[in-house]
Amino acid sequence: MSSLPLTIMALVSTPWCRAAEDGIPEFLKRSIILQTFGVKFDHPCQDVENVVIPPFIPPESVQTTLEKYPLTGRRDIWAFFRGKMEVHPKNISGRYYSKKVRTVIWRKYSGDPRFYLRRHRFAGYQSEIARSVFCLCPLGWAPWSPRLVESIALGCVPVIIADGIRLPFPTAVRWSDISLTVAEKDVADLGRLLDHVAASNLSAIQKNLWAPDVRRALLFNDRVQEGDATWHVLSALAQKLGRSSRTVRLSNQ
After folding, report:
1. Which CATH architecture has domain 59-216?
2. Which positions make up the signal peptide (predicted)?
């Protein structure tokens, strides 16, 4: 770091964005921020140099789940979501949380047998992801969620419902080939949209999704591996600092 006296690389989470609304501290203006929060529209979180990174999911938990539920195994859940739908009495009928997206999903599809929707925590939820064809990834308070990485790592096609989201490592992960994007305004039509994909190009999406390099690119390993999430973070930083990604050298020593 001695050669980069004006650059601070900070690993931060979404709450710093709220603080940024009151003014970005001077030291952050000279920093490159690694953050899970990424959007394509104007936002205080995006007013400093940044790299969007995936949230951390333990690779060990993914590997353990895949040993029990292989990628190409039977997927008996068609569309899956586990998480908050309507929360806190102050958010009347989900009016504010998730911009009503999750509320619409629950109200329209909770009675549809094709949709496996659950509102409560379950320690073994990764097994549900591994058994699912489509995994719904609607926005909550923020557009991103760890469930997006878990879905990809466990071979479930992520259905991203978060307008304007900026996804990590777009040059390494061809998001349009491995996921579906549904506009927030179209969430009530989700069933028909998934039917269309299932009848047309689902097998092609799954083939792309199950490629080992896709899963590798979004997981942080204890020891850095070429092509894993840490490797892509270093490559992105090298490019922002005006260096060729070829200068990134990793060692397991």
Report:
1. 3-Layer(aba) Sandwich (3.40)
2. 1-19
